[in-house]
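<context>
A single protein, sequence plus fold
<entry> Chain with its tokenised backbone below
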Amino acid sequence: MNLTRIRKKRFDIDFTTDEEVYSPSSEHKSHGSSKKYSIFHPDSSLGVLTKNFVSLIQNAPNKCIEINDATRILQVQKRRIYDITNVLEGIGLIEKKHKNRIRWIGSKSNEDFSQEIMNYEREMRELKEEEDKIDQWTQKLQDSLNQLIKDPEYAALAFITQEDINSLPNLTENPNEILLAIKAPPGSILEVPEPDLCSNELEKYQIVLNSKTEPIMMYMVSNDSSSKI
């Protein structure tokens, strides 16, 4: 199951409440008739609201319901319903049939649903903890690099030589290739033609550099003295 879509937004859903969940009953008539549901008592708890919403959609005709109907029956703001549907869709329990119409495709019982949600909530917490650790170490490394950059002794050594570049294997595998180093001021524009749109072979290898402020410097790094630019 893909958790990418919900990883950045966490919802603390609690399924340990002993409050009653009101099951809806419906009467589905011909076109133009109204649907009747039992009354749900409004509850601000996201856990209870989620249970009520799941029970509502599971007992709706064809397990489909309109967002506006759910908002009216559960007596909550539409954004609260969207908070729930975003999580349920992210873990594959519902699908959107239209913009504001959703259908239940997940577990058949509230118990299965509750367990599945809790499993994913636990996994999301673990992923969040791991992400926080990585962010902390990344920040420490960045702080260390910033300190080195500010140190005059290290700043004087912040350079590489032509020999250093030519010693990199991934840049010197093909002896017929030309390796260039470009020094351009901020705001410079580099244009490379689309190979499939070029009218001849020469155009495929053209590079256009443009600067409106300072000159652009270009250096040949390749060791091959016979190469031409």
